[in-house]
């Protein structure tokens, strides 16, 4: 039986359907309370199993019954909200696969600037060096070079309490490595006064240049880094962390929903964040480092 058939059959046994309008409360509360009640019953059965162990011989049957009751109320709740349980199930699988792709699954991965002139491509492999500036004016500053060329501006923490944010360009490099995307890297960090054109923006396509590589996209890239930073700061800069909170990833997907990077999964974003902070923790602790970035192999690696 598929879920759509089950939902239709379940509604035939709904004892409240004929008097929903006469209820003193919103009729949709009935299945919601039912889900909560049956979940409590399931937990009660589990408590009995913990207490009695093998003596609770009906435990498998009771669990099946309670799960069946929960399923009935789920189908009823979906119906009362004019939703299709089959569609809900498919959307849920899409979401969980986006967050946790099955082992061995291969999603198509193409770099967004494939086929373009090399002058409009992110370099496929490069080395970035970020170091504290020994000649700064009393406040800690860092300088970044990419393949020996100055990149971006000299950065401070811009904070009352020094916290290492001056090294945050490492996180943009991780976006480039793991996602093949970073308007900051493309349009700001790779900008060269001695080159024509002076950056890797896709100027031959005015719409791409404006929407994907322009100011708004750059701001979104910076906003994502700043947003994740506040989360990471509260979690020891993700030291020992192996997964990123899904609500963080969901917000990032919303922020970037209108851009080409929306093709990347929540899992991809999680990997980019964790890889970026692994390198960031080292360079922050040691005042800098040499970093190898490889877009084709999707790696960002500390060299020294």
According to DSSP, the number of beta strands is 5
Order of helices and strands: HHHHEEEHHHHHHEE
Question: Which runs of at least 5 residues are low in confidence (pLDDT < 50)?
Answer: none
CA-to-CA gap between the ends?
58 Å
Mean of residue pLDDT values: 93
Round the Cα radius of gyration to an integer and report it: 26 Å
Give the helix level as a range of percent. 40-55%
> Strands of the biggest beta sheet: in what spatial order?
3-2-1-4-5
Structural class: alpha+beta
Domain unit count: 2
Query: What fraction strand?
Result: 5-15%
Sketch the major β-sheet. Answer: 5 strands, antiparallel
Tally of alpha and pi helices: 10
Written overview of the protein:
With 304 residues, the chain is of the alpha+beta class. The chain folds into two domains: 3-99, MazG-like (Helix Hairpins), CATH 1.10.287.1080; 118-302, no CATH class. Helix content is 48%, strand content 10%. The chain is built from ten helices and five strands, in the order H-H-H-H-E-E-E-H-H-H-H-H-H-E-E. Strands 3-2-1-4-5 form a five-stranded antiparallel sheet. A hairpin with a 2-residue loop joins strand 2 and strand 3 (149-155). Helix 1 crosses helix 3 (59-80). The longest helix is centred in the N-terminal third of the chain and has 24 residues, at 29-52.
